[in-house]
């Protein structure tokens, strides 16, 4: 059985906040996730990655900077930091798995819209049960000017496992090429996640959410850090995807990657998106 170092935590959510999260499917803790110095360092590191993204020929629209920690294990400094793990432990419990991360950067003026979706629909077959907490950390301000994410409260409880019906859409103006059918989305209930840099929202992987195009002069970048309990079984789909033991011990018989090294198995399966020089 694999274990991670046992530490004494300082829970960052009170019982009322945890109850709200479980009922509504999201939470705005209204606190800085990291210390000022730690967050500033992350902002600087993202700018470095963004420059690499452009230099490597991916263009100037990095909405799809997915699983960057596979190529840049330096990001584990933040993904496995006690300050973020203390934020999710009140929800997940003391045994925590790092599932994934993703920089979602909408450039000023030309940032594409994110259609209504559930993250769980893209992870179907990858885990059992489907229980993921996403920490959406604002690198830039995220507000109504630059297309803040909107969530549909309680929608995580309205589908059996978070897999709604979808239809195809034109990807030229959207980040994804599919969207939840309109009759399954009550957008009149949508709540914006207004965040200052360094603040975060939390949401369940089955919650319906999306955002409009960013036509403002202000960039909108967020870093999603995704976690599960180690009681969730992560299944191999043969694509080199890895999860990491963040805290506590394993309970489901998972295989965990080495957070100190790049994920070479992923690179072999996805050579076209691996950064040059790795």
Compute the number of helices: 6
| pLDDT < 50 runs, ≥5 residues | none
What is the architecture at the second tier of CATH?
Answer: Sandwich
How much strand?
Answer: 15-25%
- CATH H-level superfamily: q2cbj1_9rhob like domain
- How far the N terminus sits from the C terminus, by CA atoms, comes to 31 Å
Helix content: 10-25%
- Determine the mean pLDDT: 90
DSSP strand count: 15
Question: Given the helix and strand composition, which structural class is it?
Answer: alpha+beta
| Bulk shape | globular
Main β-sheet: number of strands, strand sense, barrel status? Answer: 7 strands, antiparallel
Task: Please name the CATH topology.
Answer: Jelly Rolls
CATH class: Mainly Beta
Tally of distinct domains: 1
């Amino acid at each position: 059985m694999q274990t991670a170092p046992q530490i004494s935590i300082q829970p960052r959510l009170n019982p009322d906040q945890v109850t709200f999260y479980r009922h509504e499917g999201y939470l705005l803790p209204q606190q800085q996730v990291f210390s000022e110095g730690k967050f500033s360092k992350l902002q600087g590191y993202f700018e470095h990655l963004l420059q690499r993204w452009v230099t490597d020929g991916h263009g100037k629209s990095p909405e799809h900077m997915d699983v960057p920690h596979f190529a840049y294990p330096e990001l584990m400094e933040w993904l496995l930091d006690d300050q973020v793990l203390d934020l999710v432990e009140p929800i997940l419990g003391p045994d925590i798995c790092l599932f994934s991360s993703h920089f979602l950067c909408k450039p000023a003026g030309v940032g594409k819209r994110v259609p209504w979706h559930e993250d769980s629909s893209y992870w179907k077959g990858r885990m059992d049960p489907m229980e993921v907490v996403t920490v959406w950390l604002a690198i830039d301000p995220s507000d109504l000017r630059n297309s803040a994410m909107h969530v549909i409260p309680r929608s995580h409880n309205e589908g059996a496992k978070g897999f709604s019906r979808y239809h195809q859409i034109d990807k030229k103006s959207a980040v994804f090429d599919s969207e939840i059918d309109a009759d399954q989305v009550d957008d009149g209930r949508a709540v914006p996640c207004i965040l200052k840099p360094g603040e975060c929202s939390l949401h369940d992987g089955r919650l319906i959410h999306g955002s409009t195009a960013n036509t403002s002069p202000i960039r909108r970048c967020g870093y999603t850090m995704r976690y599960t309990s180690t009681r969730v079984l992560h299944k191999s789909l043969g694509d080199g995807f890895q999860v990491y033991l963040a805290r506590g011990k394993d309970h489901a018989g998972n295989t965990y990657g080495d957070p100190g090294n790049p994920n070479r198995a992923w690179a072999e399966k996805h050579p076209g998106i691996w950064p040059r020089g790795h």
